[in-house]
Amino acid sequence: MPDVVTVTLNPALDESGRVRRVVPEDKLRLEEVRIDPGGGGINVARNVHALGGEVLAFWSRGGPYGDRLAELLDGARLPHRSVRIAADTRHSLTVDEATSDHQYRFVLPGPRLTDDEQERWIQVIEGLDARILVLSGSLPPGVDPGFMGRLVRAAPRDCKVIVDAPGEGMRRALEAGVHLIKPNLRELEAIHGGSLEASEDIVRAARDLIHAGATRGVVVSLGAEGALCVTPDSHRPIPAPGVTEKSRVGAGDAAVAGLALATARGDDLHGAARLAVAAGSASVMQGGTSPARREDVERLLRTME
Question: Which position among 3, 14, 253, 296 bears the catalytic label?
Answer without folding.
Answer: 253
